[in-house]
Write a structure and sequence with these properties.
This protein has 355 residues and is α+β, with helices and mostly antiparallel strands. 54% of the residues lie in helices and 7% in strands. It has helices at 36-45, 47-67, 82-86, 89-116, 124-128, 136-146, 157-184, 197-209, 231-263, 267-273, 289-317; strands spanning 20-23, 32-35, 213-216, 219-224, 336-337, 348-351. It has a four-stranded antiparallel beta sheet. The longest helix is centred in the C-terminal third of the chain and has 33 residues, at 231-263. The relative contact order is 0.20.
Length: 355
């Protein structure tokens, strides 16, 4: 069964005659089917909570698409406006990427110039010593070193930091794109005109709790997996992991910012990102790598509370799924079709015929 990151996938209808055994390769317990009447009663009982979840999904969609977009579009990689791009994670990581490339090019130029004048020991002390020939390569090398590169060359520390920060950022963009796409695929309170409000909430409830539709010999309903395989449990686990990813990424870039305050305060490095100052130079203090990395950490901060609210609603507000106590004599005998037989974790589930 292919379960999307948020919600569940549809299973094919299963037909039978009389009593049938449905094979379920599950780790614990038995799957069961809720008839459509029972499922509809559940939705009406939980309507207020499902409405709150739907509205929170709309808030999340606005957050990931407008307030703090990824920058690759929603769906991903579609063009976005300039104003959206400037607020995006991708724009911030692009600045890191450009700075990394510019630094590596300057670093390579220093190495090339040192080779051209045949320095035995490529270091600032060797390049600036009086005995070095007064040739154009030597002049160019000394000019770069005098401008501030003497503190950065030939150590690889800053280059390694830029490589690491950009790699972490680029990977997080890909993860954020997947998260954004999954949120945009979830039914929210706002829905297409082709759907009624009831149909829309039903779709949301199925994404949260159902592991597929069931339709056989006139019996219609939804399949519910047991225990840890239940769709809602999977959704909560994935939301918890997602929040941990966002919190870890925020912490990681705050650590990067702390290191940058010590190792990346050189004016040469500040010049690499000067043109990307979001305040356009209006602030008295220059835009530094500490500011850039802090802005990246703040971007993750923007998503965290909205996903925490989503998880809280699913975990603490939404009521439990229907169980045997929901069965009503006024409903058909298939109001709740339970797994019967082997009480131990097994592979089979018997379904009673509705006749």
């Amino acid at each position: 069964m292919n379960v999307p990151t948020f919600g569940s996938a549809a299973l094919p209808s299963i037909g039978w005659g009389g009593i049938v055994v449905l094979t379920c390769f599950i780790a614990q317990g038995l799957s069961y089917v809720l008839s459509t009447p029972t499922w509809n009663r559940y939705i009406q009982t939980e309507w207020t909570n499902l409405e709150s979840i739907a509205k929170q999904i709309d808030v999340l969609k606005y957050t990931v698409n407008q307030d703090c977009p990824v920058g690759g579009g929603a769906p991903a990689f579609l063009p976005v406006s300039e104003s959206l791009y400037r607020r995006s994670l991708l724009a911030l990581i692009d600045v890191l990427g450009e700075a990394r490339l510019a630094f590596r090019m300057s670093f390579a130029k220093l190495d090339q110039l040192s080779r051209m004048i045949k320095l035995k020991d490529p270091s600032p002390s060797q390049a600036l010593r009086p005995g070095v020939a007064r040739r154009p390569p030597a002049d160019a090398l000394r000019e770069m070193l005098d401008s501030g590169w003497d503190e950065l060359w030939p150590t690889n520390r800053v280059k390694e930091m830029l490589d690491e920060m950009h790699l972490v950022g680029a990977n997080s963009v890909l993860a954020a794109i997947r998260i954004s796409n999954n949120i945009n695929d979830m039914p929210g309170w706002k829905h297409a005109d082709s759907l009624t409000g009831q149909e829309n909430i039903d779709n949301l409830a199925r994404r949260i709790d159902s592991d597929g539709g069931f339709n056989a010999d006139g019996v219609e309903g939804v399949i519910i997996q047991p225990d840890l395989q239940q769709s809602r449990v999977v959704l909560k686990t994935r939301l918890q992991s997602l929040i941990q990813f966002l919190e870890f990424s925020r912490m990681q870039f705050r650590i990067f910012a702390s290191k940058a305050s010590i190792e990346m305060a050189n004016p040469i490095l500040i010049d690499l990102i000067r043109d990307h100052d979001p305040n356009h130079g209006e602030e008295e203090a220059p835009f530094t790598f500490v500011d850039l990395l802090g802005n990246i950490a703040n971007w993750y901060e923007c998503w965290i509370p909205e996903f925490q609210d989503f998880l809280y609603l699913v975990e603490h507000q939404l009521g439990p799924l229907p169980g045997p106590d929901w069965w009503d004599e006024e409903e058909p005998a298939v109001g709740l079709i339970e797994g019967i037989g082997d009480p131990n974790p097994g592979l089979t589930m018997e379904l009673e015929d509705g006749n």
